[in-house]
Amino acid sequence: MATNITFHPGSVDASERSELLKQKGITIWLTGLSASGKSTIACALEQTLLHQGRFAYRLDGDNVRFGLNKDLGFDEDSRVENIRRIGEVAKLFSDASCFTITAFISPYRLDRKTVRDLHEKANLGFVEVFVDAPLNIVEQRDPKGLYKKARAGEIKEFTGISAPYEPPENPEIHIKTGECDVTQAVKAITEYLVSHSYL
Ligand SMILES: Nc1ncnc2c1ncn2[C@@H]1O[C@H](COP(=O)(O)OP(=O)(O)OP(=O)(O)O)[C@@H](O)[C@H]1O
Ligand SMILES: [Mg+2]
Questions:
Q1: How far is the centre of ligand 1, averaged over its atoms, from the C-alpha of 121 (Å)?
Q2: pTM greater than 0.90
Q3: Are 129 and 37 contacting, i.e. CB atoms less than 8 angstroms apart?
Q4: Distance (Å) from CA 28 to ligand 2 centroid
Q5: Nearest-ligand number for the alpha carbon of 141
Q6: Which of 4, 53, 77, 149 is the most exposed place for a label (fewest CB within 10 A)?
Q7: How many Cα atoms within 13 Å fall on the side-chain side of residue 154?
Q8: 40 lines ligand 1 (CB under 6 A)
């Protein structure tokens, strides 16, 4: 743990930055089982926002583990640390006025609340999106063949099979990907951004 460190205040605060850049940052936090559709929806949303000339960026579990978090595994402590780091990075992006779209399973309610609190304390927007699909559907999709491996015992501590997933109790947006397509999912999120004056 570092000591003798002092926080250096910024040249402009977040609200002044938003005004100058004409965009208020927000973290759009997608959570759900593997294969529920987080990356698919996050990509489509990022594309939609970029095509509208917005500053948007996707932080994705599938990519962050290759770099920033390559030292972390999938045991409970590592999952907590994984989300803690992502939460801090998302906060930095949001502070920089970005529409920050995160796509992580993020199975623990407490971790998601910690990230939410981190944003709210800094007066930054945070919206939790439950990308919801039942186990039988995600197992059927199984685009990476992970459920098959988990059922065969080749992957341990796999969310939904041998590790818990705690669904959000009050997500701002609830998307059932077994019942709607990607376009409708993106629309639900952009409508939220419009109704809350981010777009
Ligand atoms: N309505 C939908 N929304 C999103 N994805 C859908 C939908 N219907 C079917 N799919 C399919 O489901 C799969 C979802 O995979 P995706 O990689 O997006 O999941 P993920 O939640 O990011 O999983 P992981 O946590 O393993 O990264 C894709 O193959 C996608 O085409
Ligand atoms: Mg993904």
A1: 32
A2: yes
A3: no
A4: 15
A5: 1
A6: 4
A7: 6
A8: yes
138 vs 147: CA distance, rounded Å: 8
Q: Which atom of ligand 1 is nearest to the CA of 34?
A: 25
> 117 C-alpha to center of ligand 1: Å?
28
96-129 pLDDT per residue, tens? 999 999 999 999 999 999 999 999 999 999 999 9
- Burial class of 58 by CB neighbour count within 10 A (0 to 12, 13 to 18, 19+): buried
Q: How far is CA 28 from CA 44, 112, 171, in A?
A: 13, 12, 11
Which is the closest atom of ligand 1 to the Cα of 43?
A: 18
pLDDT of residue 79: 86
**Ligand 1 within 6 A of 107 CB?**
no
Domains of the chain: 14-195 (3.40.50.300)
Nearest-atom index, ligand 1, CA of 143: 29
Tell the residue nearest (CA) to atom 6 of ligand 1: 37
Is any ligand 1 atom within 6 A of the Cβ of residue 185? yes
pLDDT digits (tens, 9 = 90+) for 25-44: 999 999 999 999 999 999 99
Q: In sequence order, what are the residues at sequence separation of 6 or more whose Cβ sits closer than 8 angstroms to the Cβ of residue 27?
A: 90, 91, 93, 94, 100, 102, 115, 119, 124, 125, 126, 127
Residues annotated as catalytic (active site), given as ranges = 106
So what's the pLDDT on residue 29? 98
The rounded mean pLDDT for the chain is 94
